[in-house]
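Quality-control log, excerpt.
Job 1 of 2 completed; input and output follow.
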Amino acid sequence: MSLIHHNYVQGDFSDFYVQMVDLSCEPIVGPLGGVSPGNSRNPYILELKPDDLLSREELTEQADHVYGLLLDIAEEG
């Protein structure tokens, strides 16, 4: 959501917030410890305020970390 905010919430849209609908459901744990998604979903809207967003520097750091992990995985294969 931080990435979307930094790329699209600017100019005429600078007062906008990014919202996401979370459709997660409560997991069901079976008698043998297996986990499966539940049958009911309680969607809710997740909205991050500007104070909750990662800075561009933090996003770059996170992207570099993910890229490094992908390179490690590629070398193992």
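Job 2 of 2 completed; input and output follow.
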Amino acid sequence: MTKSVAPALLIAALCLSAETGAGGQGSYVPCDNGLRCVMAPCPSNSALDLASGKIIKGVSIDIGGLPQQDKALDLQDKLYAGKVVVAGTIENRPHTFNGKQYSLPTLVATGIERAAKDSERGHCSVR
């Protein structure tokens, strides 16, 4: 009986981790991507999703949910240059520019995980 229970538990654990990765917390390296524009919305930030390797372009960063000790880390410069790995989620949030409504990706940061590696900052304009 224990031989048949172990594979079932493994399958359940894999399914749970796949569901969590799809809509749950992730790890991202946000930074300035070097693009500038004259009319909003401006896609001047991007974030590398470390789980998928996908670069989310035009993302804004909401640091309001970070613990106070993380906010005190000279964070703006680190986010600009892609120097930290941020835990959080990407949400499409409404933003209004010049009277027009846009749904734009927002990285909702919940914590700072660690310093980013050089290889993880490859999509940043400032390294």
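Post-run check on job 2. Strands lie at 26-32, 45-49, 55-57, 60-62, 84-97, 100-115.
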